[in-house]
Description:
By secondary structure, this protein is α+β, with helices and mostly antiparallel strands. The protein is 27% helix and 21% strand. Strand 6 (161-164) and strand 7 (170-176) form a beta hairpin.
Amino acid sequence: MSSFSVRFLAPSLPSSNQFKTSRLCAAPAQTAVPPPSEAAEIDALRLEPRVEERDGYWVLKEKFRQGINPSEKVKLEKEPMKLFIENGIDELSQIPLEEIEKLKLTKDDIDVRLKWLGLFHRRKHQYGRFMMRLKLPNGVTTSAQTRYLASVIRQYGKEGCADVTTRQNWQIRGVVLPDVPKILKGLAEVGLTSLQSGMDNVRNPVGNPLAGIDPQEIVDTRPYCNLLSQFITANSLGNTAFTNLPRKWNVCVVGTHDLFEHPHINDLAYMPATKNGRFGFNLLVGGFFSPKRCAEAIPLDAWVPAEDVIPVCKAVLEAYRDLGTRGNRQKTRMMWLIDEMGVEGFRSEVLKRMPEQELERSSSQDLVQKQWERRDYLGVHPQKQEGLSFVGLHIPVGRVQADDMDELARLADKYGSGELRLTVEQNIIIPNINNSKLEALLNESLLRDRFSPEPPLLMKGLVACTGKQFCGQAIIETKARALKITEEVQQQVSVTRPVRMHWTGCPNTCGQVQVADIGFMGCMTRDENGKVCEGVDVFLGGRIGSDSHLGDVYKKSVPCKDLVPLVVDILVDHFGAVRRETEEGED
């Protein structure tokens, strides 16, 4: 075991005949004979690390700087992490915006480098204001943390609000630069950080939102996600070993047969599996979305014991950091490196960076059952702890206001244990509710009027990115439009099961339209009169769970004003919906 290893208590292992159904495999179909190494076919010069450590920061070597993209040039001009580690944010926050705008260096500070601190300047739609993205491993937060975030956005009036993201995370809006040092201090006081949550960093570690309370969970993912976050950020002090990646990088730990964690769209996914009586994880690598390409994660043909979750994460990140290309930003995600080197070639580079250069081949004993009907966590459900339940609340397109957050914190304290869980579907779970308090909770006005545990079926799976209201990259408005169109569609059809509909304002697909039953990606198009208008490309057929599959384009450039009848037709033709006028005619 390496110095980076951490000892975990393994979950109770199933008996040899407990799981006879087929499982989601993170292992290749045949692993008895390892494939021949492709590493020998790779030019030795290609395996030279492209970065080196200088004065505590990792920088791109001079010989590899030709043809690099603009973001790499910004990093070379000034190390972004100095804004945090060397307190550069204190000085920057005191400079008036009009002075900042005069110099390219300081302008790049607020538009690019502050993303290393989780701050995103909304130059296009909220000039001078920032979105702040937090780190919330496994989506677990406390009432105290929620109240603090509410106090931050409340001071910004109508400019302030918060969103639950598709990575179990909070984003708060309306922040102004002079307030940032105070906010960062306040975050630290309640055990939160926004560090390393944007640009070329590791994003929020995702886990099972029901971790520790689910009667049917495979393993509690919270310790692993917490450990990953602590390692990646050096306990919120800044880990410069992993702040100069070629591009962003996503990680998740799977703890449930439901695959709430969406492993197929992560750069590294830990899939629970046993080997020779030991508990650990098979590894999937390379899943990602981008405007030019979307790819599902593939098996690395590797298994690690539970205590080596951190060493293998470190090794994968170092291989990507050292060898990933830094030219065209559309071709710098980790899967492009895997494509170039081959899976076995990439695996060999990970192995080189493992403690004692050991990395076991994948296990055939996957613990995730493939024939598993994905459960609904919205509503009231019993926990594994006797006498306790959790309640899943639907947060329409993930948007909350300061008063909402204060109310959620109050309910968590009054009825639960002061804890809230965020989900990748932009919803919130209140755990640890004594069954004797359920009726009173369900009668609270917030649940009756705003965040229903039992929303309409078409609203249940509705997800939307930030959209043009705040995001400068969005082509169309998403959140309000998603709600409006869904409400209109509901009036025209009835469905017997939830249909997951995702909206994203641009091809960056933060709304993850490719995993939706029906996805809507923003674009500009023309209406029947040839007039330019907001539209969408419609995707169909995305699946999540053990038979995950990315959806395909169904119809391109549909004006948003024409969407309702199209969605009605799709629901009737592909999802068994019934037109409401037909129902009335038969009565």
